[in-house]
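Listing S7. Sequence submitted for prediction.
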Amino acid sequence: MQLKNSKQIVLEIESFMISSGLTQLQLSYCSKINQSTLSKYLKEPPKKITPALKKICNYAEISLFSDELSSPEKNMILMQALRENWDGTDEHARKISKIISAIGS
């Protein structure tokens, strides 16, 4: 198993915070880390996996390993991009699908 890079993990943490409606203060309290540490990580991901980052991931049930992202639904970067860009219509979904298909070709 290969460790994800910290930037990927921080994106997943941000996505978790949005989907669960948690603030930095709430997540840091639940993860038993300082809020300032979480804030720092969200602004600039750490260069390595730290004990505090592990605590956050443990609480948020975010895997540190990349091989668990084999299905698109589990890829937080992809899901975040869809949430931010899709307008909710079938027509727009087809357009996004065409763009993704063109990238894969």
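Caption to Listing S7: primary sequence and predicted structure tokens for the chain studied. The longest helix spans residues 6-20. The mean pLDDT is 89.
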